[in-house]
Fold these 3 entries.
Entry 1:
Amino acid sequence: MGFFDLDEFAQEAEKISIIPHPLADKLSLDKKISYLGMLFFSAAINDGKVADGETKKFREIGFSLKLQESDINETKETVVGLLTNTSKMAFVKEAVSLLQERETAMFLYCDMVCVMGADGELSSDAEKFLDGMTKFLELEERDCCFLKEYSAFMPEKKKSKAAEIVQKYRTEKFYFPEGLIKYYTPVLDAVKLHGGKLPLGENQICDGKFILEEELIVGPGSELIIKNAEIEFGLNGYINIAESASAVISDSSFSASPVQPKDGEEFAAFMIQSNIPLLNINGCYFDGKMIKCAICQRGKLNLSKCSFERLNGGSYYAIDGGIDSVFSDCDFMHCTGKLCHISAGGKVSRCKFTDCSSEDEIALFENGPLYLVLFERCQASTICERYGDKEWRKEIVCFKDCSGGKPWDNFSNSPVDYSTWLEAYTRSKENENA
C-alpha cells in the first residue's frame, strides 16, 4: 500500500453521497442484516439468483442502513447459500420475525418493490411473493391497500404522480411511518390543501409539499400536526387555530406565494393565527417573500430553533406572541416593518436579528429579559423598545453596525460590544452541548 489507501478512500466517498435510510438509527444490527437479507432474497424471486449487476444497488442500500461492507457481503453469501426450499423458508421466517413492527414492515415492503420492480413492472411471482409477505409481516388490511396503491409509483418517472394517492390517505387520517413519503417520493408535486374546517380529532400535514389558498380552520376538538412539511400560502391562505383546538408544529417550512397583491387588494396578513393557550413551534422556517407576516398567537408562543426571513410587518407585528412567550435560538433576517412583539413576562434568548429595517421599532419586548440577543446591520427609529419593570432584568444585548435613531429604549443594562456578546454566546452554546 502506498501513502494512502485509495480503495478505502473511494469507498468512504461513496458512502457520503448516499441518503441515510429512515430506519438506519432505529434498527439494531441484527434487524438491519435481516432487513437487507430479505431484500437480497426478494431480488432472487424472479430468476433464482442475485445478479452481479445489482451489487452496487445493494451496497448503497446497505450503506444507507449504516452497515459495513463485510456485513453486506456476508448477508449476500448467506442468501446465495440457501439451496433447499426448507432452508429458504426457515430463513424467511427467522428474518421476518425481527421485522414485523409496523413501520419497519412498511419500509421493507416498499424496498422489496423497488428491488423487484425497478422498471415499474412486477412479475406474477413477485406479486405473489409480496402478497404472502404482507401476511408474514402481519400488516393490517388498510396498510396493505395503501402500500399496493402507493408502490405503483415507485419508478422514477412515476414518483411525482403519487401525490393524489398520498393526499387521499391523508384525508382519511391514515398514519404514515415517519419519513416514508419523503424517502421514496421526494419529488412529489405540491398537494393543494382544501380550506374550511378540519374534522374532529387528529389531522396531519406531514412529509410533503402543500399549497394553501384559503382559510384552514382548526376548530374546537380538532388537532393539527405539521411535521416535515413544506407549505406555500396563497394571498388568502392561512391557518386559523381556535382557542379550544390544539396544534403541534415542527421541522417544517412555511412560505408566502411569490404572487404580489394588487394595489388596494386585501389579503390574509399572517400564515398562522392562533388563539390556543400555548403554541409550540420548533425547527421551522418562515419566508414571507416581503408580502406576509408569520405568526399571530394570542396565548403563549414558544419558538425554538426557527428562522424567519423576508417578513413584512406593516400594520401588524410580523411575529406577535402573548404573555410569557419564549423565543430561543431563532434567526430573523432581511425583514421589514415592525417585526417582533412579546407581551409581558416573555423571554428572548440567543436570537439574532440581521439586516432588518423599520420606520418604527423592529422589536417590542415588554417586561421580560433579553439574553444573548444580537441586532446586526439593522436600521430603525428605535431598533428595540422595552417598557415595564426593568430593575430585575440581567441582559446581554449587542447592536452591531446598526443605524437610524436610537438603537434601544428602556434597557436595564447598557448594550455590550460584539466581542463580549460573541464570547458569552459561544460559552452558552458550549455549556448546552457539554
Entry 2:
Amino acid sequence: MTVNKNSILGVLDLSKHTKLGELLIFIENIKIKKNTSTFKNIDVAILSDDKTKLFTVQLPILYNYLKINTCFLFESKNIFKEFINKHKTEYYNIYPSTINYVEQENPLDSTFESRNFFKKKNKIPYLSSLSKKFSSTNMSLTKQLKNNYSVVVHLKNSTSKHKESDAIQNEWFAFFDYFKSENILFFLIGADDIIDKIKKLSNIIITRDIGLNIVDDLILIEHADLFMGMCSGPFQIALFNKKPYIVFKNPDHHKEEMKKEIGDKNKYIFAANNQNIYREVESFNSLKNKFSAVYKKVHR
C-alpha cells in the first residue's frame, strides 16, 4: 500500500455507519478538513462488510463528490485498525482524528463541523457533484427540468418500526393534487414505498420508474429548483448547498439533537434564504402555504 504524506486520510467504517446521511456528512467534513489545511490530496480508508452496497452505492457517491487520490478497502476490522494506527503519525491530517471513532465515537450524526467552519469563515464547502450527468441519457428528463418548475421530493417511508420521521403521504397527495394544473413537476426520489394515488398523479415522476439510481437522485437535487421532504439522507445534498428547501422534522423525534443543531430557529446557521427546516408534522395547509411562499417569488 502506497501512503502519500501530502494527503488527508478519511477513515470510514461502513460496517457500522451504513446510512446515506452519514456518508454525505463524512464527505462534507472531509471537504472542510481540506479547506482548513494545505494538503493537496484526499485518501480514504474504508472498512466494509457489504461489497454489493459498497460498489453500487457508497463508492460511486464518494467518487462523485470527492476527488479521491487513493482508496484503501478492508474487510477485516483488525487489519483496518492496524493500518490506521500505523499510518496516523505519517499523515499530517487524519479524519476523524482518533482511532476510537472505530469503536465508539460518531462524528457523522451532526453538522458540528459545518457549523463550526461557518462561524469562522461565514461559508461552507458545497456538496457539488463532480459529474452533473445522469447514468443514462434521458432527453425527456432534460426537457422536463428545463420546461417546468422542478421539485425533488423524498417521502421517507422507513421499513423499521421507528416511523416518527416518515412522511404523512395522504397529506402529500392532497398537496400534489392541488398543484397539478400548474407548470410544476414533482420528482419522487429513493426506493421508499409510495401510495398508488400519488403515483397516478400527472405531475408526479417516480425516478426509479425512469431508470435513475441513487447517485442520479442526488445529482437531480442539484438540477432541480427546490427540494422538499423529510429530514433524511438525501436532504444532506440540499443542506450542504445553496438549493432552496422545505423540510419537515417531527418535533418529538431527535428533540435534543435538533436543539443542538438549530436551537429554537427553523434554519441552520449556515442556511441561505429559502432554506428552512420546520419542526412540525406536515399537513396539506402547511405544505401548500410554505411551498406557495417560495414558488411565488419566482413566478409572480
Entry 3:
Amino acid sequence: MMKALILVGVVVGLSACGGDRKSLSYDFSENGCQTKHSLNTQQEYCDTLKDRSKNMQEGVECARRARYDEFQRQCSGQKWDN
C-alpha cells in the first residue's frame, strides 16, 4: 500500500510581541498520523524533529521520513542518530 505523505507546513516566523524573537514550527501528517510542534530555538527544533517520543500519536511514530528530510535541510552538522 502506498503511503501518502502530506507536508502540512513548516513555518519560521517572527513573534508579534517580542520584535525579533524567532519561532520555529512544523506540522507533518502521514496516513492520518499528525505531529506538530512550535519551538523557540534552532537546537530545540532539531532535537524535537528527531525525538520519536515527541512525535507519537496513539503509539505510532508520525511522519518519520518528512521529519528526517526537514532535519537534513535545517540541522546541518548534526546527526539524526535514531
